[in-house]
Input
Amino acid sequence: MLGSLSVACPPVTSGVVDGKPPRTTVDTTVGAGDVIEIRVYGEKDLTGLYRVEGDGTIVIPLIGKVKVLGRTPPVIGYRIARKLRSGYLRNPQVTVFVKEYNSKKITVFGQVKKPGVFRYTDNMTIIQVITAAGGFTEMADQDSTIVTRFKEGRKYRLRVKVKSIGQGREQNFVVRPGDVIFVPRTLM
Output
């Protein structure tokens, strides 16, 4: 038989932080291990997939290493176009897309069938994350799911009513990279 563990934690809110719902701004910055697609219009040799190295750079033909860590796709495209413009192409048209966010993860544990760490995708919802974790176990307290989020050095704990979301009674909850989702066991 397992014993119980008591840990002092801040109070759990119901999707509200400091009287306001959490902002759902999407973090599109690039990190180590991410895969980005760079398209340079009319330049097939420069167009392709690039994996961000551990030092936060990618290597592009003609211009060499480009630091991309912590930058958004539009900023990366601008920097590449600027470097190509200085001696290689007259007016390069560069677009950048993130194909895989390998640096951004969501952790799910507790009463789910396949707990683990899952890759974050843009606008990912809690329903998608729980589904990736195989769904709830029979013992899950689905409407007491806790999302722990770190923002600007502060820790927030949010109670999310996932069952109610699935039934259309609550708005879906957008997760963010780094969120930790815990599904508690029902008390019944």
In short: Residues 35-100 form a domain with the wza like fold fold (CATH 3.30.1950.10). The chain has two domains: 35-100, 105-183. The chain is about 15% helix and 30% strand. Confidence is low (pLDDT under 50) at residues 1-22.
